[in-house]
């Protein structure tokens, strides 16, 4: 709930917080962390060569989630069109990463956990897109 409190305290927000965007912020942070950790765990696996695409998508998704979270956190002024496009890009990145991690989830717990984080983030970002003006 830290995201809610800090955004609510912003002088231009004046307590009027978009709950869908706050939920997306929390999912974005969690997903970026999960994807970074999954990529690192993939690098430690004996079959690292078979996990190259997973690592790539993990890192891409982590970067996109972090960038989207930064844009969504900024409340001075607005650029709703850019934020919606970033959320849309995040939905696409999370979907692709989740699909790749699913391929390895039965063998690697870190891939299963990452897949779940990506799916939660995908859903939260899709919902935030609907509520972003």
Question: What does this 3D model show about the protein?
Answer:
This protein is an all-alpha fold. The protein has helices spanning 2-8, 19-44, 52-73, 80-104, 109-130. The protein is built from five helices and no strands. Helix 2 (19-44) runs antiparallel to helix 5 (109-130), helix 3 (52-73) packs antiparallel against helix 4 and helix 4 (80-104) packs antiparallel against helix 5 (109-130). The longest helix has 26 residues, at 19-44. The chain starts with a helix and ends with a helix.
Low-confidence stretches: none
Strand-residue fraction? Answer: under 5%
> From the alpha-carbon coordinates, what is the Rg to the nearest angstrom?
16 Å
The description of the largest β-sheet is: none
- Overall, the morphology is elongated
What is the strand tally? 0
Helical segment count: 5
Mean pLDDT: 91
Distance between the termini: 22 Å
**In percent, how helical is the residue content?**
over 70%
Q: Order of SSEs, N→C?
A: HHHHH
Task: Decide which structural class fits the backbone.
Answer: mainly alpha
């Amino acid at each position: 709930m830290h995201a809610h409190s800090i955004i609510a305290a912003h002088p231009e927000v004046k307590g009027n917080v978009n709950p869908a965007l706050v939920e997306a912020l929390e999912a974005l942070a969690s997903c970026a962390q999960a994807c970074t950790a999954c990529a690192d765990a993939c690098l430690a696996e004996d079959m690292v060569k078979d996990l190259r695409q997973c690592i790539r998508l993990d890192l891409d998704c982590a970067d996109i989630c972090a960038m989207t979270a930064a844009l969504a956190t900024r409340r001075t002024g607005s650029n709703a069109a850019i934020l919606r496009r970033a959320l849309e890009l995040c939905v696409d990145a999370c979907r692709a990463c989740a699909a790749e991690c699913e391929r390895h989830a039965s063998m690697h717990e870190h891939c299963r956990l990452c897949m779940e984080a990506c799916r939660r983030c995908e859903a939260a970002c899709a919902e935030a897109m609907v509520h972003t003006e």
